[in-house]
Amino acid sequence: MDTLFRLVNLQQQHYQQQSDQSNSSRTSSSSKSSTQQNQPHHAQVEECFNFFMDEDDFSSSSKHFYNPYQPPSTTTTPTTTTGTPPPPHDDLNLDFSGNWSTELLLETAKAFADKNSGRVKELVWMLNELGSPYGDTDQKIAFYFLQALFSRMTDSGEQCHRTLTSASEKNCSFESTRKTVLKFQEVSPWTTFGHVACNGAIMDAFEGETKLHIIDISNTYCTQWPTLLEALATRTDETEHLRLTTVVAGGGEAVVQKVMREIGQRMEKFARLMGVPFTFNVIHHTSDLSNLNLSELDVKDDETLAVNCVGALHAARRRDSVVSMFRSLRPRIVTVVEEEADLNFGSDGFEFVRGVSGVLERLMLERAAGRAVVDLVACPSDDSAERREPAARWSRRMHGGGFSPVAFSDEVSDDVRALLRRYREGWSMAQCSDSAGIFLSWKDQAVVWASAWRP
Amino acid sequence: MMKGGGFQVVHGVELIQPHEQWDCTNVGFENNCTNMERNELSMWVDNIAKQLIEDLPETSTESLQTDTTMVFEESIVPSTLGESRPRKMTKRSYSCDGSGSEQLYCSHQLGDQTNLSRLDEHDLSLITLLLECAVAISVDNLGEAHRMILELTQTASPYGPSCAERVVAYFSKAMASRVVNSWLGFCNPLVNHKGIHCAFQVFNNISPFIKFAHFTSNQAILEAFHRLDRVHIIDLDIMQGLQWPALFHILATRLEGPPHVRMTGMGTSLDLLVETGKQLSNFAKRLDMSFEFHPIAKKFGDVDMSMLQIRSGEPLAVHWLQHSLYDPTGPDWKTMRLLHDLAPRVITLVEQDMSHGGSFLDRFVGSLHYYSTIFDSLGAFLPSDDQSRHHVEHCLMYKEINNILAIGGPARSGEDKFRHWRSELARNGFMQVPMSGNSMAQAQLILNMFPPAHGYSLVQGDGTIKLGWKETSLFTASAWTSHASR
């Protein structure tokens, strides 16, 4: 590691500016003396920091600046705000009212791609100063992204991934999971978009059918189903029975089993309320999805089958096998939701980070946070459980597996648009041009893809 | 409580008019230490760290010192590091595999000194991991350190119920920051001065240390300015000037009337200084005291005599409350040089009893000991969800921890920081003025305002007054005079 040190002293530079009475100390200083500085006199300040931290930036006039310290809420999960840090110079045009971290990440990615090392250092410095593992979402994202970057640079990605996995599993609980997911859904349509679209397609496919079976392979902790149960309860067709078989990835650890049991109990209760005859099953699945034992799914001939796959396909290694496995089940419909990200670029290019913007936010809130980021950025591609593909690629796979796309009905599209109107400005829905399905876009950047297929 | 211009004057703590002569030969010794319990966490940390360091192949342990004992032989308690060494154990015992029993086993082996009944398994494993991480950093094994930091930050929380966990959380974050700084090759912490001033005020309200510094120093200044009619005070880092209203009040009520007071306030932002100056001027006006204020937004070491507008016939007091939030003075040698040139009538110095220099591991162990103690003192009477406590821990303590770990030391800052200002002053032609009995009385009065008074330890000796928690000294107040000024 390059361990040259130089104290870049903000105050010193600031005083210099004040005494010079000019703002022009932005001299380029690209010298990198490698000797340790033991003389009392300091060398010059690096150029990149000249525009930062004028004391005047911290004037009391702007509401973005120093916030009185906000105490944590009384929940035990450390997802609460610590004192908000002051934002840097307007130069970067960061909007600190929300999502500053993702913009910072994108800037960093861009600087990497442009091989602009001076800029990268600036941005890494900012991430380091502003990030925190104990703060709000943005602060966490900044922190974990930085850690992932570091892991990658030092090739310690896999170790970090393992560390984070074991650490976070110790902290998991039903309550915290539930809160996290709900909070996330409150804040963005990230998951609800897919839910609404898929439920719509499934309901269309279930029209006129009474014996229903849904195989659910998702990472949203069954938050999709209450709405579907409601729809079943209020539709004109009778529902003789609904079976929901949830496939949960992971090691089947005690804590996950416990969480799923609680989820199951709540689902059953809700179904009773809705008056829908309902059975809930959980399959804990340890290895790759393609190795799933189909007999465990217990698919019956007289049932109408729907396979719902939200955010789970990308975790599978042998994706084509998974698709053909779905085909072999002879479902009426298969709904697929994936985050849109073109992440299979070369291992050295950081272009993939561009596609990760929203992904990181989602991951933070899922408390699989650091782990996934580290995996994404730092682990070698074949081991990654987080390698996402763009919609076009998934579409080709589905086509290849013997499926053809089912368009979402107008009604479903209307429902989705209505959903998006409930959230803040910037979210929109778009039809895919080069593949089936629809996109959820944030500021015209496609972030989530939802599609429906039939054999 | 009288309010004046935004400041509060606390009547309960009147400064005592000096009766005794200005006598430098009086070196009293009183031991007001009232604590009984050992600071378990800190002691255990010291022992474990010592062991881990000894296991390192190349580092020497001679450099390890804690400043709690530098000047003071019959101190509150001698440094735990110097005492009976723990029996040498194999390295295996210290590996953190999350097995609490292993840690507890270690602790019993370390002799009777430690009684870890208050620390649970969780805390113990966290601290052990933290120490291992520090050792990794000290040998530049950043990859390994990084992995441990990730685990630490996932498991320790600054909102945790135990002080130990909070300390670990903040130290872990500081080390994470340091790792990135090492990677970048420079370090430049973001400083929000307004935020710091605010947090400082909160700290002033919930803990006696700041008031201790203010009132003992004010007493020493008062005694030095006995019967003078013009005085000049330079506050090297005035912040919001919380200290001065109390002094003005007592000066204004002197029998011979108030002197003309000129104050030079130094700090980082001209705007903030001007604001402070306004407040102080208003206050002085209310007291009918003739007052001028000069703000200088520069570091003391970077200033020259002409900027300070020294006037003859105007005795000078220089006041410095040291902290680790940022660097208010610049290179130490420059500061010393200016002090020498100024030849003040009195220099009031309040130091943190912690070394800012030395190797990373030295600073790490020292600061862990130091901040654990402060966290303990806050946690002793404030509940874990107390807002003020969080504010201070997050906005003040963490900033200091970060600075000490990330910057400190000549390898990174490019300059040699004095380890111990008192010794340096003594070596550079300054003469110590022992803190008087009245200063001690002031300190005692302050303590009585803060529960639980029994946890704090106040000790006078060697001409200084030290305030600490349990047996760890945290701040030392002393006063000095330039030979030339006499």
Automatic annotation (TrEMBL), chain A:
Residues 13-42, 63-88 are annotated as: Disordered. Residues 181-246 are annotated as: VHIID. A motif (VHIID) lies at residues 212-216. Residues 378-454 are annotated as: SAW. It comes from the Eukaryota. Keywords: Transcription, Transcription regulation. InterPro entries: TF_GRAS (IPR005202). Residues 13-39, 72-83 have a biased composition (Low complexity). Belongs to the GRAS family. This is GRAS family transcription factor. The lineage of its organism: Eukaryota, Viridiplantae, Streptophyta, Embryophyta, Tracheophyta.
UniProtKB/TrEMBL annotation, chain B:
Residues 200-265 are annotated as: VHIID. Residues 406-481 are annotated as: SAW. It comes from the Eukaryota. InterPro entries: TF_GRAS (IPR005202). Keywords: Transcription, Transcription regulation. Pfam families: GRAS. The keyword Transmembrane does not apply. Signal peptide: none annotated. A motif (VHIID) lies at residues 231-235. Residues 275-307 are annotated as: Leucine repeat II (LRII). Belongs to the GRAS family. PANTHER family: OSJNBA0084A10.13 PROTEIN-RELATED. This is GRAS family transcription factor. It comes from Actinidia rufa.
